[in-house]
Amino acid sequence: MPPEARAKQFMPFSALSGLELALSERETRKQQKAQLDGEEIDKIDRELRKLTVGNETGVVCFYDGIYTPVKGRVTKIDSIKKFIEIDGLRIYFDDILKFIY
Question: Residue 11 half-sphere exposure, CB side, CA atoms within 13 Å?
């Protein structure tokens, strides 16, 4: 084996290539949570009152530091703890920016 090929055996290896880059990009994507006015809050409240378990719906919600669209079937509604679950993902009422269809 030539010496150049042998040297490659001992070079650092990253099994998760790109992980550091992906994590740094995710940190820079973090957003500030929007402050909704009374009219927007009322609109979200009206949409929440229409929902029942089993409905298909979609929301844009603040999740893990960014606004994320979530679509699916409502699996749970808890008006005491103020959250809905869409396909098992818990979304608190205060984190909903808007409904999408």
Answer: 8
Could you tell me the pTM of the whole model?
0.69
- 8 Å CB contact between 45 and 62: no
What domains are defined for the chain?
35-101 (2.30.30)
CA distance to 10, 11, 16, per residue, from 7 (Å): 6, 7, 21
- pLDDT computed for residue 28 by the predictor: 61
Segment 75-81 mean pLDDT: 96
Give the whole-angstrom CA distance, residue 34 versus residue 79: 22
C-alpha span between 68 and 78 (Å, rounded): 21
